[in-house]
């Protein structure tokens, strides 16, 4: 097994996840099988209980794992299906070590960060790297590991120490370290400054890790003299310094790496440069085509995203990526209008009339309305108003998770005249519970207690729009993350009133897809 470690320096948010994914893409295009691991140094066991404002969306895997959004990037870029163990957190590591200690597996030893925590990290990496994730038998050829956070963070130290030991253990030729750093350009002088990266690399080397490749984030391509300076002070060959400068779309990042021969540098470090079965030039024709099509798009499609976390677009990253992929396939330039659901509510007319008008103007100017998932009752009334507007004006509406439940509540209130209709999430004592807590859920523990992971939905109406969109299939497997469901006891009432549920689970009692009669 070969390992590529991606670390970050200077500041967070440089795009380590996209860089790690893109490295995987170019290596895969050379003929190698790739797997990925993301290390998050926080104490949470997983991302499931964190607000989207903290780390962006919670990405859900097939096996029900609630993980960091970067694993979504890995899956989309590399066409793989990861497991919950591909996301390592401090919480998981410490929990596993403490569990072993309680079982007496350390034979009376004093349990310490070194060697017990660091050994647990290394063992976890080696074990997970061997799990096939591309649908083929046997382990991958290369495991790309991303270390979250920034070099120098206190919480990262056990992982840094473990990875330093790990690089020595697997030996030269099996470990390549790619350090993503920032080369800022000061507007005052317009010069690319190397000092932040120099300090970052010095800190990395001081912690026992030596970078083989520098991936420098900047607004434009690095000048030759800047590369030479970085090479001299960071002890990295100039040929191993690549620029990740600002580009028009994310699909151009693997092309940047290919054009700067990053794959050649990585293959050389991993002693794979002379293996005949590995292509010298990555085949990235699909990436070139998609990037080119995106840049040429002219005709726009406007989608109003109505949610409560609109201040951070990463909160809905997977939904955004799905919209982007669909719009490119339809040859449309995507414009997402972010609408804070609270701004649509009547109370905003008095408190912030300008925000109210702006929100409704965006909603009325949209070609489609999307209400994504969410938790809690803040902004729910605004989402109901958005669903009502879409239904009455015949605007295409997509409700995901809570967005679907909201549409059901709206239909009950304004079509069936059940004015007190609600979800028990927002009103536990409602007389008309359209949406209820699922019986298998836990009301005492929050983490990993929802209906999670890939679930099969069977289409009950063969010619419905949803089935057609999936290619006229009889069933589809989609990932779920929810505690509440449409009340199965009320389904006959809904269907008699004209709301048809075209997709249900294998029991036939859990509503998965609804479609209003007349719109099919």
UniProtKB/TrEMBL annotation:
InterPro entries: Class_I_gatase-like, CTP_synthase, CTP_synthase_N, GATASE, GATase1_CTP_Synthase, P-loop_NTPase. Its EC number is 6.3.4.2. Residues 313-513 form the Glutamine amidotransferase domain. This is CTP synthase. Belongs to the CTP synthase family. PROSITE patterns: GATASE_TYPE_1 (PS51273). Transmembrane segments: none annotated. Residues 2-272 form the CTP synthase N-terminal domain. GO terms for molecular function: ATP binding; CTP synthase activity; identical protein binding. Catalyzes the ATP-dependent amination of UTP to CTP with either L-glutamine or ammonia as the source of nitrogen. Pathway: Pyrimidine metabolism; CTP biosynthesis via de novo pathway; CTP from UDP: step 2/2. It comes from Panicum virgatum. Keywords: ATP-binding, Glutamine amidotransferase, Ligase, Nucleotide-binding, Pyrimidine biosynthesis. It catalyses: UTP + L-glutamine + ATP + H2O = CTP + L-glutamate + ADP + phosphate + 2 H(+). Signal peptide: none annotated. The keyword Ligase applies. GO terms for biological process: 'de novo' CTP biosynthetic process; pyrimidine nucleobase biosynthetic process. It is an enzyme of class 6 (ligase).
